[in-house]
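Researcher: Next sequence.
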Amino acid sequence: MISPREITLGLYGAFRLALLDVRGMAYFNCTEAGFWRSFTAAAIAAPGFIALTILHLLHPQGMEMLEIAGSFRVLSIETIAYVIGWVAFPLAIFYISAVLDRQKEFIRFIIAYNWSGVIQIIVLVPIVTLNAYEVFPQSFGALLSMVVTMALFYYQWFIAKTALKITAAPAAMVVCIDVALSILITGTANALLYGATAAVPAT
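Model: Next structure:
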């Protein structure tokens, strides 16, 4: 069981890293137990994930998918994709860290990465919400989304560079692996959902 103090320190450490402060690493419990407990971040970020899913389903395309595929199928596939997303990247980095000769830094990197996931979703939910309700002109909303996305990529790059103690290029590779896995998981989930849509005869 993780303590409120460890959660607070984990989130604060991730926040300090978001400010590009390498001292943020000092707030993490970089032990094997801390590694496993850092996956609590997935539960903390879950409400944000639910909010993003709902916002996606409010779009006409999402509503059509929900109507045809069914709410249970949609929620089941989205939930499975969410869980896989939190597991696939650490598994990939376990092997990548060996290639980079950074096995000793694997635990501390995943701990920092996990807690940073909460910070990232805290940033994304308001932006996606504002764009979904067209608070800004479409062009400005698209620009804002692009800027935030690039900033989050840089955040991930900084964490990889700091926690794994690697140079800029390998850190960029780590971020690319994360993005590639996210695209693969999202694409597979969408294929399953839209496959259900395609399976229904047109009327």
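Model: DSSP finds eight helices and no strands in the chain. The chain has one domain: 41-104+117-195.
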